[in-house]
Records
---
Amino acid sequence: LSFWIIKFRHVFGQAVRNDQCYDDIRVSRVTWDSSFCAVNPKFVAIIIDASGGGAFLVLPLQKSGRIDKVYPTVCGHTGPVLDIDWCPHNDLVIASGSEDCTVMVWQIPENGLETPLSQPVVVLEGHSKRVGIVSWHPTARNVLLSAGCDNQIVIWNVGTGEAMINLEDMHPDVIFSVSWSRNGSLLCTACKDKKVRVIDPRKKRIVAEKDKAHEGARPMRAIFLADGNIFTTGFSRMSERQLALWKTDNMDEPICVQEMDSSNGVLLPFYDPDTNIVYLCGKGDSSIRYFEITDEAPFVHYLNTFSTKEPQRGMGYMPKRGLDVNKCEIARFYKLHERKCEPIIMTVPRKSDLFQDDLYPDTAGPDPALESEEWFAGKNGGPILISLKDGYVSAKSRDLKVVKTNVLESKPVTKAESISTVQKHASSQPSVKMEDKLEEVLREFKSLRDRVILQDRRIARLEEQVAKVAM
């Protein structure tokens, strides 16, 4: 076996002490196979049960212990939240998709929430059914993908609030997963029709597809690896859980397929491109299994299983720059129980205290390689890498600015914008005041309009339910 294998034979998993867990959290019970948790170097976000709408918690990482029942939430959705994703280029910005058919993008205050946050920076409307997947572009700023139960994929320019690309006739059934390639030029999807598709979103065409990638009826998952291959999880005809590896240029036959066990939880794959390790977390399982992917048979090498007593309801996965390199930490998971979130740390024990550069090749940093306009115009860029040698120090995140194309849909002005407006108009003081007043009126207008739209939808849904009951 290769050099890598020997190195990662000894990945050691360990749950943290009780006082480092986040306790007394009502983790969402909605039936949906997303991870329910998203983490970055500043915050852990967890979808929770919320009466009369949808909400999620955003906790600063250091805020472990018991979480007060009245701790403020992010609570602008009118239906349960199904998926959340932190922006890879701004640790204060998070997107959420919900049963209310909308995607919302939020800016979290630098030190976390002190009051409930119900006003998103932008509401993205375009899906006709619930939105189960949100995923930021890995290398272009402000590009966000959403996939809904209307079987559509929409790619948004968050900076203008516009739906730029709509992939509507590609999936005849529910989309189980969507994954960006390393430079974000392609997508791979897993669909209920048992096909895995590779899609060029800007050309709106299917580049490759595999029918019956896994023969079983239960949900599949498909993710891109750094070398362009695709890793899938699914079920065999006999309902055994499987994993498989595929070449995108020829998907007729898999590079390899492995049967795992006959549990029925969907396997959520988490991938580390720096070490080429895939961690598999089954929903409802009480273990994390990990495999190393190499160019040599058997290609997907089983490394180890980390087991606990309690089953997992969901799982968050920390980006590499949020890990403690001094402890030789190569992965950190945030495991959701029914009432708590428990960090699990994966380390490769080493005798030396020096920086282990073999464990930490340069990794994707927070700077985007492209602006959204460049990506939509056809340009590509791989991730901008950083060294973790002295640990990652986060720079101050810039405010997310949304400049709507239609002035009637203008958004709350961020501080930075108001300052620059004031400077520009220092000579014409009265017009500044007028503009501020206008901004405020427009802001109120937009907030009321959004609320009316959401309430309309909610009423329609309730009427449907009443009609069903009456029948």
Note: Residues 315 and 335 are 5 Å apart (CA to CA).
---
Amino acid sequence: MCEPALIATDPSYMSLGQNAEAHVYKAGSLCAAFLANIDNQSDKTVTFNGKAYKLPAWSVSILPDCKNVVLNTAQINSQVASTQMRNLGFSTQASDGSSVEAELASSTWSYAVEPVGITKENAMTKPGLMEQINTTADASDFLWYSTSIIVAGDEPYLNGSQSNLLVNSLGHVLQVFVNGKFAGSSKGSATSSLISLTTPVTLVPGKNKIDLLSATVGLTNYGAFFDLVGAGITGPVKLTGPKGTLDLSSADWTYQIGLRGEDLHLYNPSEASPEWVSDNSYPTNNPLTWYKSKFTTPAGDDPVAIDFTGMGKGEAWVNGQSIGRYWPTNIAPQSGCVNSCNYRGPYSASKCQKKCGQPSQILYHVPRSFLQPGSNDIVLFEQFGGDPSKISFTTKQTESVCAHVSEDHPDQIDSWISPQQKLQRSGPALRLECPKEGQVISSIKFASFGTPSGTCGSYSHGECSSSQALAVAQEACVGVSSCSVPVSAKNFGDPCRGVTKSLVVEAACS
């Protein structure tokens, strides 16, 4: 039977001292309260309705009956896991159907070259530079901008056969090709998508073709006027030399939405295409290249990911389904990271940053629902250039499950039912549960009651530690799929009177 909802539109406010307050909601005989400590440095003990409550710094306690705390935001009683990514190499299918483990041989990948510039009949030509989002209508990440010039050899923007090409763009990624050859690239930053690229180019007498490929990497969908932000090449686009400049911004530009490979559905191997080439070798580190191969499903039921180390930027498909854009060469800023993270204080986008100077992401999840028994297809579109033989499959394996609960933690939230139903409150308890059905806790790797420190996988005893902790945890947990251990000196003895103690347990499941 459901309990009646508490509906109160006008909560009452009550000061509980400096930087501490209560917000109380009442409706008839029902009452609920939120006690807040907005000091981000100091814990506080406050009095509410004649009863003392401990409030850790920068936290809120929830009292659904205005008496009993069922949750404090700084004392969440939850299990964590210590995991590792196990590298499986790349299990591919050889031509005879047998499974081939470890790194890919050069014969295991087919490839297709994405042509530079305009290849579609529905391309359009207009004077000036068009904004990308409105032009593509989000049909593709990619928009080609193409124009051409005639060079006599004595132009003021030339220094011999050399010139500098300046391109300004709203982002997010820009690649420049001159006469079909790659000439340079640039990308926006974490703080601004704007691009200003100046790259040297070589021009030849006669007709010269300039192709610019603009790519978006996700679009903003929140904030004021986000629909006016725009993307793509806005100009100016100029050729500059020692004696003059040629502004191409108002020239006739031909536009192509998307890639030829997208129109041919190269990402879907079930649709045969003559574009694919199967040779004894395949090109690596070339921009605008499609790759295709087969692999066998990793055994077991652990979560699967692909490590894209060795690739540049692109998108990946497994059995025709996209697992997203990859970009392991996108390096995080060198500064702004912290050695330790504290939840206290106002949130900011730079709070608790880590992995400065490292790739923003190298592992990309492959849902097991995408996989099929035996052989699977993988297709990559590589935009910058990479070597697909270097990618590998990994599985995420849980090594330990851990929990850390103190004597000051609230009781388990399910021990409170309602003011009308009486239930013996047992105090805080540490709970562990194996992550997979059929597993049981096989061993206790670490247990400490007192003042332990550390994180899951690297706990250590403090100066105060009960000698009974390991035996109590083993008795309660080994051989079962889940267990609950009361956090109390009655259970472990009191190794240090007058000190708030914690229980830490790390367990292995099998």
Note: DSSP finds four helices and 32 strands in the chain.
---
Amino acid sequence: MESGEGAGGPAALAGRTDRELQFGCASFNQDSTSLALGTETGYKLFSLTMVEKLDCIHESETPDVYIVERLFSSSLVVVVSTTMPQRMNIYHFKKGTEICNYSYPNNILAVKLNRQRLVVCLEESIYIHNIKDMKLLKTLLNTPSNPSGLCALSINHSNSYLAYPGSATIGEIIVYDANNLNTVTMIPAHDSPLAALTFNASATKLASASERGTVIRVFSIPEGLRLFEFRRGMKSGGDEAATWTAYMGKMFSAASSYLPAQVSGMMSQDRAFATVHLVTSGQRNVCTLAMIQKLPRVLVATADGQLFIYNVDPLDGGECMLAHKHRLFGIDEDQGEGTESEGSEVTGTAQACPSYAATAALPASGPVTATLTGYSEDGGAKKGEVIPEHEFAAGPVCLDDENEFPPINWCRDGTGGGQARRS
């Protein structure tokens, strides 16, 4: 399940129990180094750099948040609340300021962003903004009914591909070039409506699943050719396992900071290499693959406010072991805080969050000079840092949180609020 999917909009908060009502949404950022959590009382941002320790780097009291998306490891955060479901607010959380806000004709169902584009998905339209100045570049009107707001935006800003349903009744996928603002291809992916979409890190492959949920198909991008088909619940067997596990071992050992870029090259069979059995079922989850402390992990954030971290065996695969469980909000009803859960190696509670004022008062640091520069909190990469392959692009975008942060320059003239219009 892709991070950020299934937030569900205002309707998703209706008809739940008191315990479930605390939870609005959860999403991992583009390189799975951060987790954003929205609840009735506000939203929190967590850093995902260690297995045993979960640091809350920011907390806001914005009520009834059902969409919260962070741009990589920057201070830009997009928030949508059920109190104003047609308005998107963009904040610089480190400064404690609102950069701007934008209103749309209907409820916002999803927001996706990379270093070039910010995409807002409504039920029957999609808005594409330039992230550096929030100019509305394109409005895709009369798109097929998409009540869940299903869409995917590639994180590679050299080719900002956008994928969304091309039909409400069958599993057609429209692939749109959000940089050049033109349709790339239409993929007849499934017989039943789509339920999930995600690009690999370099945007050369697109995976999809339908509402039936039994088959995952992978297509080449931009051609739209079917490359692989996977069926749930199948294992590698016999002679196939030796070659498959050896290849997996090589790929995992070469992985740097974003696992999906490497995983995309491993898909040569239609069988499951590794599996995760969740502690509970019947609730909404968001999950991601990430490299934490140089090892591959599966992270699962659950609707009851927990984060499960599983280890993936890079050589033998098989059943992923639960390495750690963190409580994101509330208390554990079955066991007291800090007690060990059955089947887990360790468990813990999220670290105390700094106040909003304390976060806004954090000292700003200027850009760090480096041979390879990427987008980070200090405006550049630290010396010796390895930049993942998906960070490289023609005409790199280096945004400075303090001086060039999108879309601060445009908002300084007092026109920071906007009404989305068709282009």
Note: The chain has a mean pLDDT of 74.
